[in-house]
Specification:
The chain is of the alpha/beta class.
Length: 754
């Protein structure tokens, strides 16, 4: 479908002059990311922004929200005083559908189970001029790529994999709901000017190698925090050789290296994708300004001069990779996988193989996977693992059914799941005989943290391309290498799988009967949005209190988290998704997945008032009832993973006053600031070791809270001794005002007279 052509036309009409002005300002050639960023400043830039230092106000072209995060975002927007969103915005119902039996049954159950939430989202979207994509329409990022993404544009989305749209040349950034409220209200959106990492791709892929292997390789190079605060820009002849949806896969999983976003320059592959998805008019407009939708020639010629870091990958030499378990940056080439399985004692038997998700559910992904699946039947092989397929959208699902691919999967025992996130985010009713037994699953998803997919700490989850996952389903062994190993078929013959084949785009075009879109009313002033006071799923928000104007004293240590603490650990998904619109109820999952440094257990912390051990949220509720604030202490890259702002709102709601860690993931740090929380980092990381279980904590220097000025933490130990040390923060003047007001939303309400 074609949306917002007038907006896109205006962006392209303004682009040449804006890029010329930016080039004059910087006095040098520009990367693609710089062109898009400077063309989207809220006000024309008057000086060159310093990467990694200067905060910049931007004006994104659009906002996208998935149903789990849209609830809280729209509950916040409903209080800000606007009659209609200021920029095109959409809601996509993809997160609340649990994979259990199969597509049709699971979708019907979800519609009935979540009717209250869906009705709320549909009505509030209708009221404020927001496009609504019904349950079953597809996963937010696939639907955005098919309908809204355009080269040279800028968007934000309330999901960490929003960068998927970078596959169509868009700077697309995952944010928390409060950031979305800013943009929907017509206000500037603030972001620290990103650093730039250039990835030069040469050569051309063949055989078993796919676009997925590019980002699996990059993740292994940069690690889960190597891209933090940076835009990753892919360029080179190898980049132009990748399909548009392959580019999207790479950009999508850039979230796993902490990148602000990733982006590719406009090329013929993108033009072809725009045309086949009914947006030929957009392709024509983009062709007219093609030179402005790619890096300048000088950047190609001398990339080290223009990027902060440059990585080069030869696609002709790139092996298929398998990443995991428990972290998406543990990258192993397929040729080394069998040895790694043996050396690490990973369970070799693959119990479930899952393909699809927002990362890999394009027509190309499905057609290449189906070519492998077809061989199982043709060569007399049986599928040895449970095998599931998740189409990315109704457009993709309908088309692959029409073209026979769903039938191919069905013939080998594949289960087709609903067009939704499903197992990728823990919405999976997995069947397993012993939940404590070590086991292996392989997916084409993006994340594989412990408990991410099925809630089981014993599950070893590995990530690979969908065609390789399909081969794994047939072989049933993690040590299997389809490029080298033979399989024994039902007749006792040794056979090998052929290289996958497929189509970048459907030869006969995309087809669909009902894409699942509902347009909003032209005037929603008469639309009523009702939230029952008795609802267990939805709860109207009460503003957070403003800062008292004093230093914080007498705080208790709630938990000292040990090791990896992602937003999945802070606010789990899975069954908890049903409470995403009810802040008090979902706060009962706060930090229940974090490992307590002092006892090595999850959801077990010492209550400083009673001396007894209890759950994390239960202990914090006890502190709140006694009007005592608390501090959460964490390790490196705290809050990596999903953009879910619930991980910031829950501690704020329950009375946590500060999060003190070695380092933050970008989105989570911003979410904390938006909610009026103190996000602090150890100036000396070794001070983490000084924090003791029974500490009473003071945070001083707040009466002189200023950008770049350190605060002081004082630890009062149980034995009467104290430790005092400096802590850092990254708050600018505007963000300090959020803290003083109690939240960014409190300031917005004042601006609109609420």
């Amino acid at each position: 479908m074609l949306f917002d052509l007038d907006l896109i036309e205006k962006v392209y009409n303004d682009l040449p002059a804006k890029i010329y002005a930016a080039r004059q300002l910087l006095k040098r050639p520009l990367t693609l990311a710089e062109k898009i960023l400077y063309a989207h400043t809220y006000k024309p830039a008057t000086y060159s922004f310093e990467r990694g230092k200067d905060y910049v106000d931007f004006a994104p072209d659009r906002v996208a929200m998935q149903d789990a995060t849209a609830q809280m975002a729209l509950l916040q927007f409903d209080t800000c005083g606007r009659d209609r969103v200021a920029v095109p915005s959409t809601v996509h119902c993809d997160h609340l559908i649990q994979a259990k039996v199969g597509a049709e049954t699971d979708l019907n159950v979800a519609i009935e189970t979540n009717r209250e939430v869906y009705d709320f989202l549909a009505s509030i979207s209708n009221k404020y001029g927001i496009g609504f994509w019904k349950p079953g329409a597809g996963i937010i990022h696939q639907v955005v790529l098919e309908n809204y993404a355009f080269p040279g544009g800028m968007m934000i989305g309330t999901d960490s994999h929003t960068p998927n749209a970078g596959g169509l040349g868009m700077v697309a950034i995952g944010v928390g709901g409060a950031d979305a409220v800013d943009v929907m209200a017509g206000l500037a959106w603030e972001l620290k000017m990103p650093k730039l990492i250039g990835v030069k791709l040469t050569g051309k892929m063949s055989g078993w190698t796919s676009a997925k292997d590019v980002i699996l390789k990059v993740a292994g190079i940069l690690t889960v925090k190597g891209g933090t605060g940076a835009i990753v820009e892919y360029f080179g002849d190898g980049a132009d050789s990748l399909s548009c949806t392959g580019k999207a896969t790479i950009c999508n999983m850039g979230a796993e290296i902490g990148a602000t976003c990733s982006v590719f320059g406009y090329d013929d592959k993108m033009a072809n994708y725009l045309k086949v998805t009914g947006r030929e008019a957009v392709a024509q407009l983009a062709d007219n300004v093609r030179e402005h939708l790619r890096p300048d020639a000088e950047v190609y010629a001398n990339p080290q001069k223009y990027y902060d870091q440059v990585i080069e990958i030869n696609l002709s030499e790139l092996e298929p990779h398998v990443n995991g378990p428990f972290t998406p940056d543990l990258a192993t080439p397929i040729s080394e996988m069998a040895a790694a399985v043996k050396e690490n004692g990973w369970p070799d038997e693959i119990e479930v193989a899952l393909i699809g998700s927002c990362t890999n559910s394009s027509y190309e992904d499905i057609s290449r996977s189906a070519s492998v699946a077809a061989q199982a039947k043709a060569k007399g092989l049986k599928v040895r693992s449970e095998f599931t397929v998740t189409p990315g959208s109704e457009v993709v699902r309908y088309t692959i059914e029409k073209d026979g691919y769903l039938g191919t999967f069905d013939q080998i025992g594949g289960v087709i799941l609903a067009n939704a996130c499903g197992p990728c985010i823990g919405q999976w009713a997995r069947h397993i005989d012993d939940p404590n037994r070590k086991n292996t699953i392989v997916t084409s998803f993006n994340r594989n943290f412990a408990k991410r997919n099925d809630g089981l700490a014993s599950t070893h989850a590995f990530v690979a391309s969908p065609e390789l996952v399909t081969a794994y389903a047939i072989a049933g062994k993690l040590s299997f290498n389809p490029m080298r190993d033979k399989l024994v078929n039902e007749q006792g013959q040794e056979v090998m799988l052929d290289e996958p084949t497929g189509y970048e785009l459907p030869p006969n075009g995309f087809s669909v009967e009902d894409a699942g879109y509902e347009a909003p009313a032209d005037n929603g002033s008469d639309v009523q949005v009702v939230v029952s006071p008795e609802s267990q799923r939805l709860q109207l928000l009460t503003p957070f209190p403003a800062w008292e104007g004093t230093d914080l004293q007498g705080l208790r240590l709630l938990i000292k988290a040990k090791g990896k603490c992602t937003t999945d650990h802070i606010s789990m998904a899975g069954p908890w998704l049903k409470y995403r619109g009810h802040l008090d109820n979902i706060s009962n999952n706060m930090l229940i997945g974090a490992v307590n440094y002092f006892n090595g257990q999850t959801d077990s912390v010492k209550n400083g008032l009673t001396g007894e051990y209890g759950t994390v949220p239960g202990t914090q509720r006890h502190y709140k009832a006694n009007h005592i604030g608390s501090v959460v202490v964490g390790d490196e890259n705290y809050g990596e993973g999903s953009s879910r702002e619930h991980a910031a709102m829950e501690p704020r709601h329950l009375g946590v006053r500060a999060i003190l860690v070695k380092s933050f993931a970008r989105i989570h740090e911003t979410n904390l600031k938006k909610q009026g929380m103190l996000g602090l980092t150890f100036a000396n990381k070794e001070d983490y070791d000084k924090v003791q279980e029974d500490d009473v904590i003071d945070i001083t220097g707040l009466t002189g809270f200023a950008p770049g000025k350190q605060l002081t933490v004082v630890l009062h130990h149980k034995d009467g001794t104290t430790d005092s040390f400096k802590v850092n923060h990254t708050y600018n003047l505007q963000q300090i005002e959020w803290f003083k007001a109690g939240s960014a939303l409190n300031l917005i309400r004042k601006q609109f007279g609420k």
